[in-house]
Design goal:
Elements: E1 4-10, E2 15-21, E3 25-32, H1 46-61, E4 72-77, E5 96-100, H2 101-110, E6 115-120, E7 124-129, E8 136-139, H3 151-167, H4 175-184, H5 189-197, H6 203-207, H7 209-215, H8 220-239, E9 247-251, H9 258-269, E10 276-277, H10 284-295, E11 304-305
Parallel strand pairs: 1-4, 3-11, 4-5, 6-9, 9-10
Antiparallel strand pairs: 1-2, 2-3, 6-7, 7-8
């Protein structure tokens, strides 16, 4: 039986895999493209390819043979609800579990302790739980119906605000709108809209504008709305689970911005009862690795990096 385990975090912008041995030592890490299946057809290989590519990159990073197999693999996938829309992943283990990406982020943040994690990447979701018992997700309704405070939401709202301003007679060379158009190489808002609807500008590419919006003081009111939305999501999760410690950790690309992280933290700091902001222990891919250890019957509470 293999002495190796793997955890994978499949997101809407990228997929990250980690590999560890039985002692809890992380041997390798690999990155590939997006893994979510939003809008994918039955013959789509998007999920399968992303998981396989990230794992292959981690195998190479660890200096392991290409045909390495694993005792257990856990993969958290953005938007996963119990079934694969496209072609099923083919991962090198007899023990593979696919799950939503929120539990693996929670496992990485808290290592089995209680609390809520707020994830804000291309999409957004909160997840609350304690220990090995299944937790509960809040939000995460996808880019059409929700994901308030996410990168896609921020970028979409920035575009929508510019479009509404144009309808009200704003000058075509409005600096805020011009910065938006320059980011996508478009001559007009109508061109930007056509490019998005035609698929030339992908959801991930549009969501990428959120980081620019966060750094641009002209979008400050919009960014504040996003921070409030994420705070409300955390509040809903914690209020529904009074037995769970009132602490929140953050995960996802938007929290790479210290300013945005602080804005959400301040929103949570004004709540009653008080909410503690917890440091995230490990990234979600390591959380998936910890869950893979548990699936293989190993009690690994923390990892070491090679």
């Amino acid at each position: 039986m293999s002495d190796l385990f793997a955890g994978i975090d499949g997101g809407q912008s990228s997929t990250v895999a980690t590999i560890g041995d039985r002692s809890g030592r992380v041997l390798g890490r690999g990155i590939a493209g997006p893994a979510d299946e939003v809008g994918q057809a039955a013959d789509s290989t998007r999920l399968r390819d992303a998981l396989a590519a990230a794992l292959a990159a981690a195998v190479a990073s660890a200096g392991l043979p290409r045909d390495t197999d694993f005792a257990a693999i856990v993969a958290g996938i953005s938007g996963y609800e119990g079934r694969v829309a496209g072609l099923a992943p083919a991962l090198p283990s007899r023990s593979v579990r696919l799950m939503h990406d929120a539990p693996v982020a929670h496992a990485g943040a808290f290592c089995g302790a209680g609390g809520a994690i707020v994830i804000a990447g291309t999409g957004s979701v909160a997840y609350v739980g304690h220990g090995a018992a299944p937790g509960t997700a809040y939000g995460g309704w996808g880019y059409l119906f929700g994901d308030e405070g996410s990168a896609f939401w921020l970028a979409r709202e920035a575009v929508a605000e510019s479009m509404r301003a144009a309808d009200r007679g704003a000058a075509p060379d409005d600096p805020r709108t011009q910065a938006l158009l320059d980011a996508f190489g478009c001559a007009s808002l109508r061109e930007l809209a056509r490019e998005f609807y035609a698929g030339a500008i992908t959801r991930s590419a549009l969501a990428g504008y959120a980081r620019r919006a966060i750094e641009d003081p002209r979008w400050a009111p919009l960014v504040e709305r996003g921070a409030l939305a994420l705070g409300d999501l955390a509040r809903a999760a914690l209020d529904a689970h009074p037995s769970v410690v009132r602490r929140v950790a953050f995960a996802g690309g938007l929290f790479a911005s210290p300013a945005h992280r602080e804005a959400v933290a301040q929103t949570l700091g004004r709540m009653e009862p008080p909410v503690e902001i917890a440091a995230t222990r490990y990234e979600p891919a390591v959380g998936a690795l910890l869950l893979a250890y548990a699936r293989g019957g190993l009690d690994i509470g923390e990892v070491r990096f090679a």
